[in-house]
Design brief:
With 494 residues, the protein is an alpha+beta fold. The chain has a domain of 67 residues. 37% of the residues lie in helices and 16% in strands. The protein has 16 helices and 13 strands. The strands form 2 sheets. A 10-stranded antiparallel sheet has the order 3-4-5-7-6-11-12-10-9-8. α1 packs across α2.
Length: 494
C-alpha cells in the first residue's frame, strides 16, 4: 500500500467517526502530509483498504520518522498528536455520548470505549503485553498481573526533563486540563485524550478511560476541581449516584490516607469498570445486624481484608448506614489487635476503601476497613505487606488490589525467569532480594523443566494472598472474627 493510500484511509476513519467533515477532507489531507514530511499527492482509491487505525498510525509514524520529523525521544508526543487528527473534538464526543445514552448507558459507554481504543487513548497493544494468570485460594480465584504496559522512561529523557522550566500546568495527571495537552518531558502526551462531562450530585466530574487499563473497561471518574482525595458521606453518595447513571459498572475509591491509599491522593477520583472482581464473588462469612438499619442486609465477607457488605434497595438508608460505619470506624480502637484510631499527635489512622455495584436489583456497597498505623516492628505499616513479602509487592494496597487483582511491578518478569533458572540449578542472575524465598521454595518443592513456571506462578499467587491478609485489620481467624464482632457491638451500642 502506498503512503498516499495510508493517508487517505486514515482520513476516512476520521470522517467515519465524526472527527473530520467531508468538506474538510482536502484541508486535513494537506495538514497531514505536512505532518509526516510529504509535500505532494497521488490520487488513490477513496474506498478504504485498511480500517485498523493502529496499523495506519504505525505506517504514518514510520514515514514521519524516515523524513526526520521527530526524534525517538519525541515519539510519544508525536503519536498522540497524529491520532488527534482522527479524534473528534471534546464537544462532539460529549454530544455523541449523551445522545447515545438516550438508548441506554451501555450504548454510550460502548461508543466511548470503542473510540478510546480506536484513537489509542486506551493503549490496547501495550496492555496486551501484561502477564496475567489466576490463582485459586480459599477466597476464590485471585487475579495476578505483572504490569508491563507502562513504558519505562529513558534515563536520558528523565535527565533532560530536569533541565526544563518547571510548570504546574496541568497540576496533575488527573486534571481535566490534560485534555488535548501536547505533553512535554515528564508530562504525558494527551493530544488525543477525551473526557466526558458527568454531573454527580450537582458537581462537575469527568469520565475517561484509563490509558493503561488494568481491567476490562477500566475507567476513571475525576473531580473537575483539583482537590484532595476524601472518603466521607459525599464520596459514598457519589459512588451510588454513578451507579444510577451506569449500573453495568462496578465503581470504587482508593482510601484517602497514605500507605493504605492509592498512588494519587492529591486529586479526588474514583475508578470503575466491568471486571468481575474476585471480591465481588466472595461469600458472606457471617451475617450481622445493624440495630439502626434493619432494612438493609449486612454481612462480614469471607475475604483476607476486613469487609462489611451492605445491600438494599433504598439508597438513602444505605448511605446513612455507610456514613455511620465510617464515623464509628474512625473512632474505634482495639489495642489487643494493634488497631489504634488516633495516635497521641491526633493523627487519624482509620478510613475505608468503598466499592459499589448493583446486584439483583439492589445497591451493594462493600466497606473495607483500613488502618495505616505503623510500629517499630512494621515501620512501613502494620496493616501493609510485611517485609518478607516486599521482594514481590511493597507498594500500597489500593482499590484494585483490595478487590483481588494484583498489579505487580514490571521488574518481576525478568526476576522470576532468573528464579526459575535458580530452582532448576541452571546458571542464573538471581536478585538477592529473592534468595531466601527461592531457597524456601527449593526446600519444599520438586522442580522440573515442565513444572517450574507454573509452580513459581503459584508461589507468587501465595505471596499476594498473604499481602492481602497482612492488610486485613481483623484477621481471617477466630481472634479476628471475634474482634470484628466487637466492632459491630460497638457500632450498635453507640
Amino acid at each position: 500500500m502506498s503512503i498516499y493510500q495510508t493517508v487517505q484511509d486514515f482520513i476516512n476513519i476520521g470522517i467515519k467517526n465524526g472527527a473530520i467533515d467531508s468538506l474538510d477532507e482536502i484541508y486535513t489531507r494537506n495538514q497531514l502530509l505536512h505532518f509526516i514530511g510529504l509535500h505532494d499527492w497521488e490520487e488513490v482509491d477513496n474506498c478504504s483498504s485498511e480500517v485498523d487505525s493502529l496499523a495506519l498510525m504505525d505506517k504514518l509514524l514510520e514515514e514521519a520518522q524516515t523524513n526526520n520529523i521527530f526524534t525517538p525521544d519525541e515519539r510519544e508526543f508525536y503519536e498522540s498528536a497524529l491520532m488527534n487528527v482522527i479524534t473528534p473534538l471534546p464537544s462532539k464526543v460529549n454530544h455523541t455520548f449523551w445522545k447515545k445514552y438516550e438508548k441506554g448507558p451501555e450504548v454510550a459507554t460502548d461508543y466511548f470505549y470503542g473510540l478510546s481504543k480506536q484513537i489509542n487513548q486506551v493503549k490496547t497493544r501495550d496492555t496486551a503485553r501484561n502477564i496475567a494468570f489466576i490463582h485459586p485460594t480459599q477466597y476464590g480465584d485471585l487475579q495476578i498481573t505483572i504490569n508491563l504496559s507502562k513504558p519505562e522512561k529513558d534515563p536520558k529523557i528523565i535527565a533532560a526533563t530536569k533541565k526544563l522550566t518547571e510548570s504546574d500546568y496541568p497540576t496533575c495527571q488527573l486534571c481535566v486540563e490534560n485534555e488535548g495537552f501536547y505533553g512535554i518531558g515528564n508530562k504525558a502526551a494527551r493530544s488525543n485524550h477525551r473526557i466526558v462531562r458527568v454531573n454527580l450530585n450537582g458537581k462537575k466530574w469527568g469520565f475517561q478511560y484509563s490509558p493503561y487499563a488494568y481491567f476490562n473497561e477500566h475507567s476513571i471518574l475525576l473531580n473537575e476541581q483539583h482537590t484532595p482525595m476524601v472518603i466521607n458521606r459525599q464520596a459514598f453518595d457519589n459512588l451510588l449516584e454513578f451507579l444510577d447513571l451506569f449500573p453495568q459498572y462496578t465503581v470504587g475509591s482508593n482510601a484517602d490516607l497514605p500507605i493504605v491509599g492509592g498512588s494519587i491522593l492529591t486529586h479526588d477520583h474514583y475508578q470503575a469498570g466491568k471486571n468481575g472482581f474476585p471480591m465481588a464473588k466472595a461469600v458472606i462469612k457471617e451475617e450481622v445486624y445493624l440495630s439502626r438499619f434493619p432494612e438493609i442486609k449486612v454481612g462480614i465477607v469471607k475475604w483476607p481484608l476486613s469487609v462489611l457488605r451492605m445491600s438494599g434497595k433504598d439508597k438513602m438508608i444505605l448511605l446513612n448506614a455507610a456514613d455511620e460505619v465510617l464515623r464509628k470506624w474512625k473512632s474505634y480502637s482495639d489495642e489487643s489487635l494493634n488497631i489504634i484510631a488516633t495516635t497521641s499527635s491526633e493523627v487519624q489512622h482509620h478510613t475505608i476503601t468503598p466499592i459499589a455495584r448493583m446486584s439483583n436489583g439492589c445497591y451493594e456497597l462493600d466497606l473495607v476497613l483500613r488502618d495505616n498505623n505503623v510500629s517499630e516492628e512494621f515501620p512501613d505499616g502494620i496493616f501493609h505487606p510485611h517485609p518478607e513479602l516486599h521482594h514481590i509487592k511493597k507498594e500500597n494496597i489500593g482499590l484494585i488490589e483490595v478487590m483481588g487483582l494484583a498489579v505487580l511491578p514490571a521488574r518481576l518478569k525478568g526476576e522470576l525467569a532468573e528464579i526459575e533458572k535458580y530452582l532448576l540449578g541452571q546458571e542464573n542472575q538471581l536478585n538477592e532480594i529473592h534468595k531466601a524465598w527461592a531457597d524456601d521454595l527449593k526446600a519444599r518443592e520438586n522442580f522440573t523443566q515442565e513444572n517450574v513456571h507454573e509452580k513459581v506462578q503459584q508461589a507468587v499467587g501465595d505471596v499476594f494472598e498473604r499481602v492481602l491478609q497482612d492488610a486485613g485489620v481483623f484477621k481471617d481467624n477466630e481472634a479476628g472474627l471475634a474482634g470484628f464482632r466487637k466492632f459491630i457491638d460497638f457500632f450498635n451500642a453507640q
